[in-house]
């Protein structure tokens, strides 16, 4: 209820603050019998972790996950998987300057108003550091979703937009560059741009596109819990996300029904895929694809004016170790959330019929 | 779990098919002591009901709601509010032609695959007729949310886009025209355009913008259940929706952090509102605003080719009574879902502190 | 959350007050493809309905259920099953005398304190009339649980206790008498006793025993949601229930482990069944059996002293149409709740393994 | 859903196996602003921990809890409280003899059938070691429930029953003896009896009574989620529990309504309290009291015959470190579960009225 859980049958609950002792979580409902490759979990964590390249935050965290339960002789047992990632590189002192003041477009003010006070160190619970736990859960969900391919990548940074249909991209190139854009030429431009933004002490937004292939027909529930509604909720729950669209998305608005409709092939596949792999909230077996918009990171390394708890004006200098652009590190988070949604609906789909 | 409920503390569960005996629902968790104005519920139903103007479906349904429980001497009692809307104008025969074939971009095919068979009359449960129940629940939620103003309106039809900031619009004009666009000049153009589309037997998409004012600070939960994530899920659960963005949305991607950040006034309000009234998933007291993209209705009154259950090609003529553009009738649905989300989080916010 | 739903995957939500327009509910998550025998639903309702014999309340209600959705061509569709039972024999005037006073051992006082006021007619939502909706849901759950046999019966009335092991009883005799005790001799004694209690204007308690046979191995979850914990919760949620025990129950306390343990046969069945069909919260395939204790009905048709809203002493005469002993009519309710629990866990058990 | 969570607004999720690396959990929904006394948490853990006296298991575990999040400057922050208890004294080798065979009246067989295999070390997830996490959560719930007194104690061991009304007992004596019975004379007899049972290599059952005082009026929900139904579920979810009764319980069955009813005093309290502090599922401000029946521990240190995975007969010698009687250590577990239920309903009660 307090919103630290996601999913119903494949249910993930996370805990942990940016500068606390540890982050972690519990995965409840993961079916028994999955042979877990623990290295693949760590691999996804490494894709998200700070300090991996020059265009991301330089906080040094190994982000090593410890699994406490739910696995025996290499396989999931059906009991809850508890895990933790210990924080090692907290520099809480970096944050004493914001103890009593509110950083613009951060959650400082609303936390104080909602809870009466807050753990101000590094944003506390509102920090995107929480998403490390999601990546662990997502990496396990991916292994459960044997055969389903989930590929997310950066398709826009600032005004720079990759305008190719995903079918023309080579997903194997995503990890070949620091930006995680599968078009290496565009990736280079984006990287240069992020570096120039960073030099200004500023930040910039971006878009992540996600493509999910080999999804079975029938995932998703017809009314409130439509598959794309839950995917949308999942993506919007990631820090800094401002928008979600799937299939034809916002552009589909301007089309006529006769143009927009996806005609059927004899085998139930469709000739076009403006539906984005979902019809009436239920997967139809075609590729699911969607875009996720991220705003520019709020922490700029510039001087700015804001207020303190007493409503007095204060001048502050942005500092700390921050990302100039969040999308390169958010790619595995988008994948993780998508995997969690699909795992949940895959289990639920087992209950549809007698 | 099967997805026919929405909300946790203010929890709405709906039932009913397009051409069954009745639609309806149960609202559980509505606090005791609300003096309910039943006419306002019916009024919202009338805004959604078919046959209200020449640019919507001509199915004739009075959509009269009967309330069975949960109200005593004009006030909510704290016990569940059960209600039903009886269907009176079913023309099931209209649908015998689709019994064995799959309409493109409809849920026919996925229902058959998911459940083994389907109630094919009028789309059954996948019909937007289900949203009548949501409007009832939303109208009750609105009365609970005393003081909060929720105004949705049509801001785009096809390529025609209302490019004014919402602050310049007069919301009292929304109901003055069939399109539900507060700019009466633009409304006329949109209406003419929808009529021309209808004449072609075709359909067109649109965008609804929703503005929520006077929201208290502190609604929303920090991690998975961010306020905007739940609003997004709510909107994406409405039939035909393809996208959701709030605050700066997709356009915010191209901004720098130094431009995008909302500076504080001394009283905790912000000078700009690119955050869209939500920071870190929690309402900050500023206006919440968002856009919802609707695709063109899939049923076109034209001849088209599709497949039947056996994968054989069939030529069908679209018929029945359908909307050429769904957004005018979807305005009260968007409001209803927004009200349900806010009611839920308002109750939850009572539990944050000792 | 407000407690009008039961179950997670097979989820039942009910509404309705004793003297409102209608009672009813929604079953969400019932799998598609069950051929429903509607007469069997009505039959269970008839076993619960008032006026069926001289030892139960004489309120005359046909208790006819109307099903609004979720069934098509005789089969469940996988979409929610909405239903209502219209009240026809409300005599609200019977209750004007309790409008401002609190009947002892009824919920009048706590409702007023919890909600600020109450629908006082016939106990409103706290009336056991609500359980009619549970019987509908349970009757559908039973049909889903094809092959599982659920038999509840009266095993004690006041101090009169049927002291035979259930294996020696003939369940086909349960419906042969008004008390619903399968031992016809004992049934006669119980009936005579209830009649004498009724003549005094008094009431008496009783025990219902329930035996569930042919349960598959593996239903129930290991920690908080143990199968017997959920059965216990289900039974304790029935009006007037004061206790629950399964297997060896309270008597098992006095046994030694070496006596109490159930030794295995080669096929995994056990030689004895003190476990009551559940080990570690999970069904082991043996018969599940349990006892449910019901207190005497609080409404006695005698004069009594109580207080009104202002804390003033008032003398009241109990009146209305009430049961002298609740257990004969509660038999189908116990079965219904058991069926709902088993249906829920049957669906959940499909998700245990890859 | 997989049953490792308890509560809705004050929600506890646990993980961990008997012989895994660590046990632990997450408390989500604990309100902000509680000044937590961490020593009181450890104190309750110590009351549950093994090795505390000669009549409990001699496994040596310090059971030291580490709290990872959700607390800042001594107070709860409103964010999830993650915690772990590291196992230090696992002797997994003790269990190699049961790897392939099924101990009678244990969960070994059903786990294998449900999940396909199991972590057999010390019962894995089915071990009562899991309840250490509940005690942590309960100890925090108790601190939230400022002013409410929860006292559980042993009222029966085998056939030895403490037959005094709880009002005549001195709760301050509960911790004065190893059995946790407030009547020191009876406690001595019980202790001697348990020692004699232990000497035989056998085990014995018992009853724990729990009394909750100073409960506000209005906790509990009227229909399925009655306060006593949830208390019953909570208690039945504890390992080895076979029965639950509250207020007049099973004995109330034999009373007449005119005797059983609790007459009101002018202030809304009642002269008697057969209702056990709950009417219609809602607390009425009187003392809540209930009994919980525990069966004898299944592991006896004797030789016994059972079957292995292939259904072959095997003769085994019970070994390991086990409790001859579980009730002394279960006292803090009963209190913890009661506290969790009350904390949950206390939060929910904030949402009843406008």
TrEMBL record, chains A, B, C, D:
GO CC terms, sorted: cytosol
GO biological process: amino acid biosynthetic process; aromatic amino acid family biosynthetic process; chorismate biosynthetic process
This enzyme's EC code(s): 4.2.3.5
Species in which this protein is naturally found: Flagellimonas marinaquae
SUPFAM superfamilies associated with the record: Chorismate synthase, AroC
Gene Ontology molecular function terms on file: chorismate synthase activity; FMN binding
PANTHER family in the cross-refs: CHORISMATE SYNTHASE (PTHR21085)
Protein name: Chorismate synthase
Transmembrane stretches, start-end: none
Family classification: Belongs to the chorismate synthase family.
Annotated FMN binding sites: 125-127, 239-240, 280, 295-299, 321
